[in-house]
Write a structure and sequence with these properties.
The chain folds into 2 domains: about 60 residues; about 160 residues, 2-Layer Sandwich (Heat Shock Protein 90). Strands 2-4-5-7-6 form a 5-stranded mixed β-sheet. Strands 1-3 form a two-stranded antiparallel sheet. The protein is α+β, with helices and mostly antiparallel strands and about 230 residues long. The protein is globular and about 55 Å long. Helix 1 runs antiparallel to helix 2 and helix 3 packs parallel to helix 4. It is built from 6 helices and 7 strands. Helix content is about 50%, strand content about 20%. A hairpin with a 2-residue loop joins strand 4 and strand 5. It starts with a helix and ends in an 8-residue tail after the last strand.
Length: about 230
């Protein structure tokens, strides 16, 4: 891991404590009127998402230790869990989330926690980059002997340099993404690193009206227990 990326991960770790304090302060307020309650709810939500990304960055530092076990994982169970967590955020920001499962292979070889983070970060990107009243799409389908999880947004086009990095299979470090305000590319950085650890192919497709990000995982031949 190069020095610059390691520095980013160390800095992110230092942010965890103040983020946790911010969340706790928001939770400690007494009764509020409707407007202030909405602000408190937003503070808690934003701090929790930030803490989640800090935790993901901490996991990146531990990937080299090989602590994340690979096993048969139900793709639909993971995707359902992620969409349940982000449902409020999509509704609150007036974005529609369309979900389509057409995969016959129910299980993939993956790490459940890492796969959850990959899908979570792709969907969070889609929520941020789709305009109000538009929709994002989560599609799961078979792709030869693999299962492809694809998230499509209808935001600004992905810059060519970021697309090339995704085509190569991983993002070297978090970078700003022009025409996609508020993005450091952090979610793509996390998703690409976790996918690489799981030996999963990751990439992006540029459209005239948005971008599709995907991860492809080998299907597991073990009989489904779900």
């Amino acid at each position: 891991m190069d020095e610059e990326v390691n520095g980013i991960l160390v800095a992110a770790h230092e942010l965890k404590a103040p983020l946790a304090v911010l969340r706790q302060l928001a939770l400690s307020f007494g009764e509020m009127d409707e407007k202030d309650e909405h602000i408190r709810s937003e503070m808690i939500s934003v701090s929790e998402r930030a803490i989640k990304q800090v935790n993901d960055l901490a996991k990146i530092r531990r990937l080299e230790d090989g602590l994340f076990e690979m096993e048969p994982v139900s793709v639909r169970v993971v995707c359902d869990a992620v969409t349940r967590e982000l449902e409020y955020l999509f509704n609150h920001n007036k974005r529609e989330l369309f979900i389509k499962y057409s995969n016959r292979s129910q299980l993939v070889v993956a790490n459940k926690d890492l796969l959850y983070s990959v899908v979570y970060n792709f969907l969070l990107n889609a929520m941020h980059y789709s305009g109000e009243g538009t929709r994002a799409e989560l599609v799961v389908r078979d792709c030869y002997d693999k299962v492809r999880i694809m998230v499509r947004d209808y935001g600004p086009a992905l810059p060519m340099d970021v697309w090339r990095e995704m085509k190569r299979g991983w993002v070297a470090k978090p970078t700003s993404i022009a025409m996609r305000p508020g993005s450091s590319g952090l979610g793509l950085f996390i998703a690409s690193r976790f996918s690489r650890y799981m030996n999963a192919a990751v990439g992006a497709v540029r459209h005239r009206d948005g971008t599709s990000f995907y991860v492809e995982l080998p299907s597991s031949k073990q009989a489904s227990l779900f």
